What does this fold into?
Amino acid sequence: MVVRSFRWRHGNPWRWVWIALLLALVLVSLTAVPVGARLDSPGLEVAQSVQQLQQQQQEINKKRAELENEQNRLQTEQATSENRLQGLQQNITATANQITETEYRLSQAEKQLKDLQAKLEQALAQFRSMQQATVARLQFLQRQQGSEGWAVLLQSNDFNEFLDRRYQLKRVYQADQNVLDELKRRTDDINQQKAGVEAQKNQVALLRQQQLAQKQQYEQEAASEQSMIARLKNERGALEAAEAQLARESEQLANLIREKVAAQTGIIRGTGRFIYPAGARLTSGFGTRVHPILGSRRFHSGVDFGASHGTTIRAADSGRVIFSGWYGGYGQAVVIDHGDGLSTLYAHASRLFVQEGQAVQQGQPIAAVGSTGLSTGPHLHFEVRRNGSPIDPMGFL
It folds into this structure.
């Protein structure tokens, strides 16, 4: 099971205010200085426009990073809560089965006690009856010892008969004593069994109480987890707006690329034949896919290479860097213009080796693989865009 802080498990009443403020700041920032504003607007020059765009983008990206981190954490918390809830539900079922078994054992112990009590009462009745009969017989013989008891012996015809009759009287006494001893032994044995069953019954009853308390605790924890999951789902719904903003940023990036390409001079044209930007295997293709963080189907505007952290990222073709910095969910990113409306994007980098305006050659190191922005682990997200719109990179590799 996963350990959570007390504060998180009991919720943060300011969380919704925080999320709302972040989203509002993102939207206000975008409204204040549109990323796609034309560079020939009154009062703006190309160099100033680039600098202002970068400053505004830095502010937006800080807030985007906070939202992305929150989304990742919420997803982890929800998955953990769902796993814990599943475990608790299994525990509840197992404990309920144990309680059923314990109650059966308890009923069997009570039945056994009832049977032993009946046997004990029967044995005690036999013991008392035999005891009374024996005592009465002994008392009778004692009263007759002075006359009739001896008379019985003296009526013997000879000495052998006398001894035989004396022996028979002793056997009667001994038989009575044996019966009484056996009855007492049986009574003691039943009492012993009864004490053992009583102890067993008490243990089973205590176990049942413990199991009931454990089941109640599991049920309370399960209710708490269900409440938490519902809250996490609501909060993730609010953060879905942030992911929608990423899609808008992608479109705004397209406008940014088109305008910067139109504004720059000294265009460097590429060869039109790209090389692989990283020496790693392809892990995700272009087009609609299930988002690895949000779990919903989203359009993937590029391809991913599963390279390890720090792996060198190289320019797929010659060109000029038109963007180098942090760009929202793309994290640390580089955009290179190759002329004729063709550009490439390299995202989620850990380090950037080039600056905006710099000319680069095909194969030149431009960044290092990382996991910045909206990313689940170290990899290179690579895009090819024509006139700012994403197209399948595999047509160029």
